[in-house]
Known about the structure:
By secondary structure, this protein is an all-alpha fold. The protein contains 22 helices and two strands.
Amino acid sequence: MLLTGLWVAPALAGLLVWGMPSRGSARVLALALSGVILAYAAWLIVPYSAQPGILRLEEIGTAGAFGIRYHLAMDGIALCLCWLTALLIVLSLAASWKGDVPPGYWAAFLFLESALMAVFTFRDLFYFYIFWDLALIPMFFIIGLWGSSGRRKAALKFVLYTFLGSLSLLIGLLALVTLHYRATGMWTWDMAELARTPVAGPAALWIYAALAVGFAVKVPVFPLHNWLPEAHTEAPAAGSVLLAGSMLKMGVFGFLRVLVPVFPELSLAALPVLGGLGVVNVIYGALCAMAQKDFKRLIAFTSVSHLGFCLIGIFSLTAEGIAGGCLQMINHGFSTGGLFLLIGMMYERSHRRGVDDFGGLAATAPVLSVYFGVILLSSIGLPGLNGFVGEVMTLAGMARASMPLAVLGSLGAVLAAAYGLPAFQKVFWGPPGPDSVSQTIGDLDLRERAVLGVLVAGIVVLGVYPQPLLRLLTPAVEALALR
């Protein structure tokens, strides 16, 4: 029952926190329980570290009606995403410590954690889909109840886009399971069983497209990305951290866990299309980020660009590229999550987030400036920090599959510097304008330094020594590589 605990524990914790009589006690209990869940997720490496491939299988009972069964599994990819989710929950709650919010706010993050852990561990596609949809609910309330002035419109747009994507995913899954039954006479939702009985003919292409659209909306892949900038802009800082750091990874994980193993030949055929869309994401997201004057919206478009690198790596279909894409998912959680936290801390002090609202901030908040500089340099892929390793691996993998796509994708590194460094120079080193609020902003307190220090430590360690993480990913990555 070790894997069951990963999604049940946050759900029970959310119920306990929701029922607390005061805001202060809910806050303390939420942070304490999320810390316990993080420790539990980290401990899971101990009983599984000696086992390659799928680290753990967990079943309760036999297959029921229509082949649905309670079946969980964890490999290195799922374990890393569970670690990342648990860590970001703790840091997000700690960053929200001063917020005067009701118990429901803290409980929503724990319910979101439960759904995400279930998505990353369920091997049965029926439960996978149920929790895929359940993850929308707490994020809808996080944006709609505790976001900025345009929160209701952003929350509605978030739900409509992602629900339509989920509907496409459901249609594809139902068609896949039905065609498998017609071919074998056996109902099953098990990912491995479905992969062992390939679906051929025109129906396979339509199912592949339906599943791809469902996953692409969540990533999001251009042109299905329109919901993301607004959701990020209006969400509270902690909500943006979880949205970027974990929820968007559901789409990438879906490509890895379902689309490539079940449709290997179609994935090879779709390499120019999906790899090309990854390149479009990288370039389009970077160009849009360059045009933004709202700092939070700028960071939101960098998510579109960075997730493009994940797509490039995965649809290189090489072991090196897939490993780089998986590593980039983790890197993105550290770097973009850190930037959203920093923007939230600046907004908390000034109630402003425009690039032109600041200037000379390095003089009044030097520690904040250092943290921002390191995390931004990680985001744009500076050698020695984590973003560089992931980007190089994804592009090297794609170079083996398609050199033109790899060359075009490499433009993302240049464009990242073009949108990141000018904004950083303007805000922290440029002269304050007449409406600048920089002089009123105090530096980071001890709690904020500790939260950001954890992310910076991860950024440096993964940039200098990513080998332990790559070794953990290797068995799962090699099983997915098709080239």
